[in-house]
Amino acid sequence: MSSIPDASCAECPFPSDDRICRAEGGRHPDDCPTVTQQEALEEALREYDRDGTRRFALQASIQEAEGYAGRGTDAVMPAKPRIVEIGEFARRMGYRHLGLIFCGGLTREAAVVARFYRDQGFRVTSAICKVGRVPKERIGVRDDQKISIGRHESMCNPITQATIMNRAGTELNVVLGLCVGHDSLVFKHSEAPCTVLAAKDRVLGHNPLAAVYTMQGYYKHLTRKP
Predict the structure, then answer these.
(1) For residue 163, which of 132, 197, 139 has the smallest C-alpha distance?
(2) Does residue 214 come out as left (phi exceeding 0), alpha (psi in the -120 to 50 range) or beta?
(3) Are 193 and 166 in contact (CB under 8 A)?
(4) Where are the domains of the chain?
């Protein structure tokens, strides 16, 4: 068992600009990984020194900065939606072939996204979650565990979605609205790096943070212990 305390950055008690991870001489709690996990930091930095990783991280950092207007002033503000940033980042990396891995519940949105990137000059390979029409029983789902009880229901098939992209040779895969867990399987099995355009939230119009923002109000009931 490691003697290093678990990192808990999400619960750091200090103001953001006064934290040691952002300011030299900044403050930190006892379990701060910037202080306690030097081996992890050194391991990561060795990875950043690899040519491919270094270039990817460099372009991601430049893209982050260019997502803001008014840099260097007191009037910094966001300037670009994520759909634009993804295309810009892909272009920075020299990628020409994008994968679009999407949920069938966002078929119309996927068509708009695919057309947007094609109009930007990218080749787009897309795969819907239900590709293959594999019955859910194939992975052990009982009839009473399906949405459409008593009828055929195709399983979501993220490993096949990832495999289609691998075979097509996509350079960056854009994930659009996959279910919890299905997205994880795409990330695990995709050979190309992945980025998320939208995370699924059936109740909140694919804006999961709405529940976080209202956790002390409209969604306070979510804080009840199970």
Answers:
(1) 132
(2) alpha
(3) no
(4) 27-79, 82-226
Give whole-number Cα distances, 58 to 20, 47, 48, 223, in Å: 22, 13, 9, 39
Query: Given this model, what pLDDT does residue 152 score?
Result: 97
What separation in angstroms does the CA of 205 have from each of 78, 113, 128, 198? 22, 17, 19, 10
Query: What is the token pair recorded at 121?
Result: 């000059």
Model pLDDT for residues 77-103, shown as the tens digit of each residue = 999 999 999 999 999 999 999 999 999
Contact 196, 217 (CB under 8 A): no
Distance CA 170, CA 117 (A): 14
Q: Residue-wise over 35-66: b if at least 16 C-beta within 10 A, else e?
A: ebbeeeeeeeeeeeeeeeeeebeebeeebeee
Q: What is the pLDDT of residues 127-146, one digit of tens each?
A: 999 999 999 999 999 999 99
Q: What is the pLDDT of residues 183-203, one digit of tens each?
A: 999 999 999 999 999 999 999
CA 209 to chain centre: 14
The CA-based angle 204-114-77, given to 5 degrees, is 60
Tokens 């212990």 belong to residue: 225
| Rounded CA separation 197/81 (Å) | 10
Q: What's the CATH code, domain 82-226?
A: 3.40.50.1860
Q: Is the pTM of this model over 0.85?
A: yes
Tokens of 100: 């679009």
∠ Cα 122 125 131 (to 5°) = 160
